Amino acid sequence: MDFKKHLETAWHLTLNFIAPLIFMTLVTACASFLTLGILAPVAAAGYIQSVLLMFREGREPKIQDVFSRMDLFLPLLAFEVIAVIATAVGLSLLVLPGVLISLAIAFGCLYMLPLMTDRNMKLMDALKESFSMSFQGNTADHFVVTLLVIGISWIGVNTVIGWLFTQPMATIFLVSVYEERMRRIPDFPSDDQTLVQK
């Protein structure tokens, strides 16, 4: 996998759409915080779909995109509750199991939201496909992708301004990798639909 290409794509698209991405990221964070995390998964789904459209069509992200996938509210809320409980149980027993559970969720569910928003998969189908994609081909590549998505986002976590820039870049990087992976699937369009404005 050409990590440099995906990172450059994420960098250029972040700069090209920086203002709308920052506003959309801020609204996503506020919606998640004000609802104590209840809207976090479904807001993230809308966020992902908006970035996918930006990536493929050059469509400018819009604030209202954050709430565009409210149809996924219940299944994503159920997933969030189960994931939080599993992590909490792991942390309560010993810290290490909780950390391992969190990493396993990040590793195996990395493509879950893109699959649910892009291909309209149901939760369980998206989970199965995401885990399948995670272990297909070079697993080490996927491990690096997972670390980069988490790492890029956390680079700016110490400051609000920094995070408002690094979170969109991490999401675009994920979408770029997702597009490459999906083009390897027979029923996915083989032509290059990405739009990178440098």
Summarize the structure.
This protein is mostly helical.
Topology at a glance:
Layout: H1 3-16, H2 18-34, H3 40-57, H4 73-93, H5 95-108, H6 112-118, H7 123-135, H8 139-155, H9 160-182
Describe the structure.
The structure is a single chain. The protein has one domain. The chain contains 9 helices and no strands. It is globular. The protein is mainly α and 198 residues long. The longest helix is centred in the last third of the chain and has 23 residues. Helix 2 packs antiparallel against helix 3 and helix 6 packs across helix 7.
Please tally the β strands and state the result. Answer: 0
What integer is the average pLDDT? 89
Domain module count: 1
Shape, please?
globular
Radius of gyration equals: 16 Å
Q: Helices and strands: which structural class?
A: mainly alpha
Number of helices: 9
User: Biggest β-sheet, characterized?
Assistant: none
Following the backbone from N to C, one meets helices and strands in this order, namely: HHHHHHHHH
Helix content: over 70%
Q: How many angstroms does the end-to-end distance come to?
A: 21 Å
- Given as residue ranges, the uncertain stretches (5+ residues, pLDDT < 50) are 189-198
